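agent> Task received from the user: take the single chain below, predict its 3D structure, and emit structure tokens. No templates, no multimer pairing.
agent> Plan: (1) validate residues, (2) run structure prediction, (3) serialize to tokens, (4) report one or two observations.
agent> Step 1 OK, no nonstandard residues flagged.
tool_call: predict_structure(input=
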Amino acid sequence: MTEVHSHELRADTIQSSSLYNKDLAPVAPARRRWHSYNYAALWISMSVNIPTYMLASGMIAGGMNWSQALFTVFLGNVLVLIPMLLNAHAGAQYGIPFPVFARASFGVLGANIPAILRALVACGWFGIQTWIGGEAINTMIVALAPGWAKFHSGAAVCFALFWLLNVFVILRGIETIRFLQGISAPFLLLIGLALLLWARGKAGGFGPMLATPSKFQTFGEFFRFFIPSLTGVVGFWATVSLNIPDFTRYARSQRDQMVGQALGLPATMTFYSFIGIAVTSATMIIFGEAIWDPVKVLARLGSPWAVVLAMITLLMATLNVNVAANVVSPANDFSNLSPRRISFRAGGLLTAVVGLLMQPWKLLASYGSYIFTWLVGYSGFLGPIAGVLICDYFVVRKKILATEDLYRRCGQYEYSHGFHWTAVVALAAGAGVAFIGLVVPPLRVLYDYAWFVGFLVSFVVYFVLMPKPAPAVQAAD
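)
tool_result: status=success, residues=477
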């Protein structure tokens, strides 16, 4: 007798299922070769990006001093590492991606609900990164041909060009993504360090750069800004904390993925955030205003060729982060809707189109719309999903999944015609409580804590409503 959650699955059992395709299939143990280094490198490449810089610089623009902003970023990333590692376990244990993992708690069809919610957030991020890339192209052209600045639709044209470049990479497939990931992160790190040195020279050293005081006069004023900012930091990676099984399914062991992530995420995010914090603080001395967008800071370097070089480097790195962090997961999520009809490439193209429709220029209109509307807002949906997944996997099922049943109808994850309504109710309850704070002003604190409130409510509701499962199902060889 062997348990059905063994890694060795009967191929004929799942390959004939409508819930199966090769992109969603469990990764065989022989193909799980990622070491701790690979996960640390993954987080370095994903954390060193312009939205990371803007997350921290937005806090400076909002009134924090450098130590308050840096502490907020560090604490938020330590907190989000917890659900990250918990959800990562199933990927490393069973070799399954996020949409398949969600089938255990939401049902084989109900898993599309969290998968699509996660995918829509990724589409928004895809649009944001593409807009940043378009800004970089526009700035580069203005540096070489100043007359371009008078062209009213210049920014829109550049956005479209960078969007098409992303689509080209998606069509080339996953191997092109891996190639870009290997070469681009160091370039963006160099841009950040160059900006830091430039700002240090212009501002007269780190002392003046970091001497800008907080605008908050009392602890109460600071705390009102700190809480939604902390939620925004958690929300920043709340996306990947759900779909991390997409990456840990390739882990050689649980220890490899845990050590790699613990070393890679908080340290890299805090370091690169410091660059954003320091440079934004320096812009208050150099230009008399806090400029939180690094593209706008780079545009003021002076030498046109310095601007062009910086923008080319930024474009390469942004392209990498965009496709690696914001296409792989939603492509799998959309594929999960109809595994037989929607391939990885088709899912990636759908991501690109939806990202365009989400109008990223509005999400980046100010630091307030970026942090408090975008990051905090979507965390109100993702926190509840994490609450259901973690409660189901660790508390209810004790980390035991019947892997074959995740790929077939009428198995133990069929629930009610493919939907597990207990999970859906828990998700709705968590999101509902979090968003009450958005429409009822006296309860605003619930929205400010959206991810935390949503997670806790969904976790508790799911635990209370979920009947305790029977002992692990076993099957003969």
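agent> Step 4: summary for the user.
Residues 2-475 form a domain with the Hydantoin permease fold (CATH 1.10.4160.10).
agent> Done.
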